[in-house]
Amino acid sequence: MTQDPTPGDRRYLDVWGVAKSFKGTSVMSGMNFRVDRGELVSLLGPSGCGKTTLLRIIAGLMEADEGSVVLGGRDISRFPAHKRNVSVVFQNYALFPHLTVAENVAFGLRARGTPKAQIAGPVDEALRLVRMEGFAGRPISALSGGQQQRVAVARALVVGPDLLLLDEPFSALDRKLRETMQVELKSLLRDRGITAIFVTHDQEEAMGVSDRIAVMNAGKIEQFADPSTLYARPASPFVMDFVGLSATIMGTVAASEGGLLTLDTPYGPLRARGDLPAGGAAQIGVRPELISVGQGENSLSVVLEDVMVLGSKTVLHGRAAEGDRILCELPGIRSGLARGETVQLGWEIADTLVYGGTA
After folding, report:
1. Is 125 helix (H, G, I), strand (E, B) or coil?
2. SS3 202
3. I need a labelling partner for 152 at 20 to 30 A (CA). Which of 69, 245, 304, 336 fits?
4. Would the CA dihedral through 58, 63, 65, 67 be positive or negative?
5. Which residues of the chain have pLDDT under 50?
6. Helices (H) then strands (E): counts for the chain
7. Rounded CA separation 48/102 (Å)
8. 178: left (phi over 0), alpha (psi -120 to 50) or beta
9. 38-59: pLDDT as tens digits
10. In whole angstroms, how far apart are CA 261 and each of 269, 273, 335, 358?
11. CB atoms within 10 A of CB 96
12. Among residues 6, 74, 3, 52, which one has the least CA distance to residue 32?
């Protein structure tokens, strides 16, 4: 996904041509990945897609079979983990239960041989940053999940890392605390100008904390873009499905003229902007909040399979042909719509996504 690295560009981290196999099975090949200084980037994808493997290679916890890792203009590909100045916050935080909060935070400084007299100040500052300065003498077992997460972040930051890596850092927290910690951590990293990479399978989390998101699938990056672009213009059906919800309809290209496609579907003809050959299979997508009840440039008539009132929105599920999914998301609480009712759904051509082939 990146160009061959050249001197003088804005890149801070450049992973180039990385490959990795386990027991003869390739899990990653030709991986190219770039992060600019001060960026917050997420690796997003399902379990087994390669995101943790990529993170561990960057951290030096796993050696790549091929390729290079360049950080701040320095090739660290063959450096052991403790010489890369890269900090990792693990999914389970990896805190030492027999040490106090302050001792946990100080661990990295001690491991680097920092003189004892020079440890207390940075530890106090790190705890202050994560609003845990009053907990320095407490045992880890006395802390909540959110407090332990803060301690893990403080321990990662106290050594002044060139890069911060976070592997599913919020997965052990409940939803409300997870959302709070996402906001707090993003603000902290922004204020400190820290370059960070998050690994997550949660698309809402990735959208909330990231400047850019690399959507991974089967050891490759399918799309690397800012959250708005990923959501509005996904590069593939996989990205469209993984990032947010969408209505999806399978069809055939009946005509292609001047960049406007006419597509035959089980619900009648639909139109989209694209460049696909006539006669070929196509997958049509549209975000559900862009669909309304009533006519549009594209319209279809469906029987409602379900009406779900979710407080701030009402979600309609239309009865769909095999392999299709009909979703419409309306703002607020909508009355007068019931299961079994036939409704007309409409949306604009400009909001229609189309991809060649089948899912």
Report:
1. helix
2. coil
3. 69
4. positive
5. 1-8
6. 8, 20
7. 35
8. alpha
9. 999 999 999 999 999 999 999 9
10. 10, 6, 36, 16
11. 11
12. 3
Closest Cα partner for 85 from 105, 112, 65, 67?
Answer: 112
User: Which tokens belong to 102?
Assistant: 């302050």
Q: For residues 172 and 351, what is the distance between their CA atoms, to the nearest angstrom?
A: 37
CA geometry: angle 170, 92, 127, nearest 5 deg: 75
In the chain, at which residue ranges do the beta strands (DSSP E only) sit? 11-22, 25-36, 40-44, 66-71, 74-75, 86-89, 163-167, 196-200, 212-217, 220-225, 247-257, 260-264, 270-273, 281-286, 292-293, 298-309, 313-318, 326-331, 342-347, 353-356
Q: What's the confidence (pLDDT) of residue 92? A: 82
Q: Which CA distances in Å does 141 have to 129, 130, 156, 335, 351?
A: 21, 18, 19, 50, 51
Number of neighbours of residue 218 by Cβ within 10 angstroms: 13
pLDDT tens-digit map of 293-325: 999 999 999 999 999 999 899 999 999 999 999
139: its two tokens = 């045992």
Rounded CA separation 94/357 (Å): 45
pLDDT of residue 4: 44
Residue 121 is encoded by which pair of tokens? Answer: 């100040």
Please enumerate in sequence order all residues whose Cβ is within 8 A of that of 121, keeping only pairs 6 or more positions apart, or say none.
Answer: none
Packing angle between helix 145-157 and helix 175-192, nearest 10 degrees?
20
Cα angle vertex 84, ends 53, 86, to 5°?
A: 65
